[in-house]
Amino acid sequence: MAAGEGRALAPEEIVRLDDGPDGVAVVLLDQRRLPLERVELRCTSAAEVAEAIRTLAVRGAPAIGIAAAYGMALAAGRGEDLVAARAVLAASRPTAVNLFWALAELDAWQGDPAERARAIHCEEVERCRRMAEHALELFAPGVRVLTHCNAGGLATGGVGTAVGAIIRAWEEGLVEHVYADETRPLNQGARLTAWELEQAGVPFHVIADSAAALAMARGEVDLVVTGADRIAANGDTANKIGTYGLAVLARHHGIPLVIVAPTSTVDLATPDGSGIPIEERDGAELTARFPARNPAFDVTPAALIAAIVTERGIHRAPFLDLSPAAPRQGGSPAGALS
Asked: How sure is the predictor about 328, in pLDDT bands with cuts at 50, 70 and 90?
């Protein structure tokens, strides 16, 4: 099936638990094949789901968590050893805390695993909708936005975090233009974010990661908005490699950086960013000829972040209210960032 049909994907088109004639399976849109073609990948074991996560057929912190939850439901439905299934899923990618959060949710659930997994998916999509509404306050009319990697519906099982907020702000007439970093080394920005923006009709350009500094220096960027794969208790944030560099550039040019992520991405057990594990991927993704280091993420210090938007609202330094159970901080200024 050719990609590019001009509409947003429904959550079940991104990832779902399917009861087919060959038994229960996890079916996901293979993001490695986008934007050229839309192909579904059918996983019939927890190990196959873990491999799909590891090889980026499904990626993005919330979507990884959803896929892992479905993987546990799949394992239960097919009579797999659940301890082994959990172990293989937990080992698939180390940085995205949603993976471990979703597995813990299934551990604690006493009922049908498929029911809880589907509920997790629905809850994540609803969190994204709420985040997009909260984030509207931070978009001034005519804003030009830069985003990094992919934090749209593909990365979250529906709607999206950063890209979901950008599209929602564009629908309200607030966004003039979007710059999507290509995102080295696997081009999630150039392949996936660009495709999602195109589907939504948002005006955009893809730029090289290294062109962001020039765009900022020319006064072409007013706001940087990204997602996150893990947020430490103090607000330090892990995201796709290159985000930290953007944060430093944004601070130098007086441009606010906003993180949009659900509370399922918040890791209160990790005090600060130094405790976030950073995934090192195969150097062959960079070059097959020479030795290479290939970290998949970096950590942006909380001091460089203007605001973190969760489904609970807009959080500002010192980020004391990131816990789902914490009371909202008082006295935080509302309205567009300056």
From this structure: low
Q: Is residue 202 part of a domain?
A: yes
Cβ atoms within 10 Å of 329's Cβ, excluding its own: 16
Q: Which domain holds residue 189?
A: 134-315
Answer yes or no: do 87 and 167 share one domain: no
DSSP, res 237: E
b/e burial code for range 128-139 (CB count within 10 A of at least 16 → b): bebbbebbebbb
In a domain, 245, yes or no: yes
Burial of 12 from C-beta contacts in 10 A (0-12 / 13-18 / 19+)? middle
Report d(CA 27, CA 92) in Å as an integer.
17
Give the whole-number percent of the chain exceeding pLDDT 90.
Answer: 89
In a domain, 325, yes or no: no
Which strand (E) or helix (H) includes residue 43? strand 40-43
Q: 110 and 194: one domain?
A: no
Does the model's pTM come out above 0.85? yes
Instruction: Beginning with the edge strand found earlier in the chain, give each strand of the sheet holding 266-267 in spatial order.
Output: 266-267, 230-232, 237-240, 297-300
Catalogue the active-site residues. Answer: 229
- Contact of 223 with 230, CB cutoff 8 Å: no
Across the strands, what pairs with 315?
308
Alpha-carbon span 101 to 116, nearest angstrom: 13
Specify the amino acid at residue 163: V
Q: Which of 152, 66, 159 is nearest to 117 (CA)?
A: 66
